[in-house]
Amino acid sequence: MNKTEKVKNLIIDKPLKLDCGKTIVNFPLAYETYGQLNEKRDNAILAFHALTGDQFAAEINPITKKEGWWSNALGPGKAIDTNKYFVICANVIGGCMGSYGPSNINPENSKPFGTNFPVITINDMVNAQYHLLEFFKIDKLFSVVGGSMGGMQVLQFVSNFPNKSRTAIPIACTASHSAQNIALNELGRQSIMADHNWSNGFYEENKKLPDKGLAVARMAAHITYLSKKGLQEKFGRKLQERDDLKFSFDADFQIESYLRYQGSVFVDRFDANSYLYITRAMDYFDLTKQFNGNLSKAFEKSETKFFIISFTSDWLYPTSENRDIVIALNAIGKDVGFAEITSDKGHDSFLLDVPDFLNAIKNFLNTSYNKKI
Amino acid sequence: MNKTEKVKNLIIDKPLKLDCGKTIVNFPLAYETYGQLNEKRDNAILAFHALTGDQFAAEINPITKKEGWWSNALGPGKAIDTNKYFVICANVIGGCMGSYGPSNINPENSKPFGTNFPVITINDMVNAQYHLLEFFKIDKLFSVVGGSMGGMQVLQFVSNFPNKSRTAIPIACTASHSAQNIALNELGRQSIMADHNWSNGFYEENKKLPDKGLAVARMAAHITYLSKKGLQEKFGRKLQERDDLKFSFDADFQIESYLRYQGSVFVDRFDANSYLYITRAMDYFDLTKQFNGNLSKAFEKSETKFFIISFTSDWLYPTSENRDIVIALNAIGKDVGFAEITSDKGHDSFLLDVPDFLNAIKNFLNTSYNKKI
C-alpha cells in the first residue's frame, strides 16, 4: 500500500539523541488531528497509541478503511469530545504508519534499515512527539492520554516535561515492564524471528515477508488482551460452522478461527520489524529505574493532575501495577485520581465500549477543563 | 536418538476403536514401572503424564539423561513412595517416547504417519492404557494420579472404569478445556505449522525438522506454566550476564534467555507432530459434554475415593475449574477431598518441590492404603 498520500508528516529537523546513543535528524513523524485548536490554544490533547496502534485514532483509517483504534472513546460528542478538544495523535517512531521506522530507507546503502534501525525507547518516542507542541504552537497541552504502551508514554511525557500538560490519563499500564510482559513480548519476537522469511530483518529486499511469524505473534498477544472469563463467555467451546468435532487440525472451535483471523488481518497492516522494535521499547521501559528506584521522583516537578485507570480483568497490566503509580504520586502529595473499572473484557477494555470507563474519562476531562475557565 | 533399546513396550493386540471412528490394533504402548507389585496385587498406582511428559516419571530418564518429570513426588520414601507402591506410567498414544504416534511408520506407504496419524482423544489414551491392568494382572488399582493433562486422564479413567481404582487424584486440571486453554494450544500449533520445515507434518521425509516453530510453542506454553508473581520474583528485570541494556534483539533479560533455553532443549526431546496431536486431545477434552452437560453423571457408577488438588497461582487450570469437579462429586454424595495449595509457582507447582502439596498426596495415599488393611 502507498501510504504517503494519506499520511501527514512532520519532518523533525532538530537532532534527537536516542537512548541507545545514536542521534537522528530530519526524520518524519506521521500524525493526525481531530477537532479544532481554539484561539487560546489551551484545548489540545496528545493521545498516545499502543503497540499496534497508529495515528488514526478516530474516524475511518484511510489505509485500513476500518474505524480508528479509539473510535469508541474519541470523536464528536464522545468521551474525548472533538467538538471541544483538539486531539493530536502521532505514529511512534519505530512504527510503520509513516513515522521513522525500520522500513524507512537507510541512506548509507539506499535499502530499508531493517534491523540496522536503532533500537528505540519509550523515552525516544515521547521526545520525538514533543516537537508536535512546537509545530502547533501549543505552550501547554490540556491533557496527555493513552492506554497500554500509550499509558507508558503518558508517564514518560509528564516526567520529561513536567509543566507541559495540565492533566494526564495513563490507562491500563505500568511504570516498569514486568518479567511476564517481557516474556510475552519475547515470545512474539521469537515467533517473527523463527519465520524463514524474516532473514535477520532484511526481508524487504527479498520481497517475501515473515507473515506467518507475525501472525503467530499477533495471536499470542491477542490472547493476552482478553480475560479468561471474557473468552469463555464469548467463545467457550462453541464450534465454527460445524455440528461436531472434525478430528483434524482445522479450526474446529470458534476461538481458533477468531485467532487465525486476527493473525491474518494484522499482517496486512503491520510490519514485522516494527513489531520487534516497539515490543523492545516496551520491555526496556522502567521509569522507576530511570529515577534510581524511586518512582515518585519521576513526578516530583510535575504540576499535572493525574487520573489513573485500570480494569479488573486486565491480567497484562493488572490493577496492582497501576496502583503502584498512584502510590508513588500520593507519596509526594500530587493530585491523583484513580478508578478501577469493573470489566470482563480484559486489557482490551480501554479500546472497547465500556461505559463506566468512557464516562470516567469524559467527566474527568470536562470537569478539569471547566475548572480552569 | 535410538529409543528402542531403552523403552519397554506393550504391544496391544486387541483392536481399539478411537473416538475419530478409526480402529487401531497391534500398536505399541511404551511404559515404565517403579517399585514392586505386591502379592495381593493391590498396591499399583497408574500415573498419567502431562502434555510434554513421558513414561519416565522418576529416576534418570535414559533418553534425556535428566531426572524424570515427577522425581519430586515419585520415588523411594517420597510422596508416592515406590518402597510401598508399584507405579506404572505409560507414554500416551500420540506421544513420541515409544507409544504409537505420528512418527511411527504408516504401513500403507512405509513412511512416518505424520499428519495421517488419526486424531486421538484423552478417552483414547486412557482406553489404551487400560490394557496395562490386564498385562500386569491387576484387578483393581490402588490409585490413578496425574496433573494437568494427567489429571484429565484420571477423570476419564474413573469415568470409563468406575470400579478399577480405589482412589483417584486429579491435580491442577479441568473437566472441560476452556476457551483460553484452547487458544493457548492453538497458538502452539500455529507456531509449529508456521515453520517452513513443518511441510504439512511430513517433515521426517525431508530430514529438516520444524524446530524453530516447536521452540516457540514451548516458550508460549512455558509462560503459562508460571505465575506472574513467580516470574517477577525469579526473574524480574534482571539482566543476563551484562551490566546494562545492549539496545539489540539479543537476550538482554534473564527471562528471555531462560525462555530461549527452554525452547532449545525441548526440541531435542519432543516431536512437533506429537505436540499437535496431544494439544488437540486436550482441547477436545470435555467430560461434561460426554455426559450431556451433567458432569456428576461421569462419576455416578464410581466407587472411587477422590482427592482433588489445585494451586492458588495456577491461572491455566485455576482453582475454580478444579472446584467444579468437587461440586459435581458432592452433588451425588461421592467421597471427595479437596485441597487448594498455596503456591506462587503457578501451574508448574505439581511438578515442583512444594512441600504442602507433596505432604497432601503422601498423607492421602498412606491413610487410604492403610484403611483397607
Oligomeric grouping of the chains: homodimer
CATH topology of the largest domain in chain A: Rossmann fold
Kindly provide the radius of gyration of chain A, computed on alpha-carbon positions and rounded to a whole number of angstroms: 20 Å
Q: Just name the CATH architecture of the largest domain in chain A.
A: 3-Layer(aba) Sandwich
Helix content range of the residues of chain A, please? Answer: 25-40%
Straight-line N-to-C gap of chain A: 45 Å
Percent of sequence in beta strands of chain A: 15-25%
Q: What summary fits the major beta sheet of chain A?
A: 8 strands, mixed
Order of helices and strands of chain A: EEEEEEEEEEHHEHEHHHHHHHEHEH
CATH homologous superfamily of the largest domain in chain A, by name? Alpha/Beta hydrolase fold, catalytic domain
- Total strands of chain A: the figure is 14
CATH class of the largest domain in chain A: Alpha Beta
Helix segment count of chain A?
A: 12
Domain module tally of chain A:
2
Name the chain pair whose interface involves the most residues: A-B, 59 and 59 residues
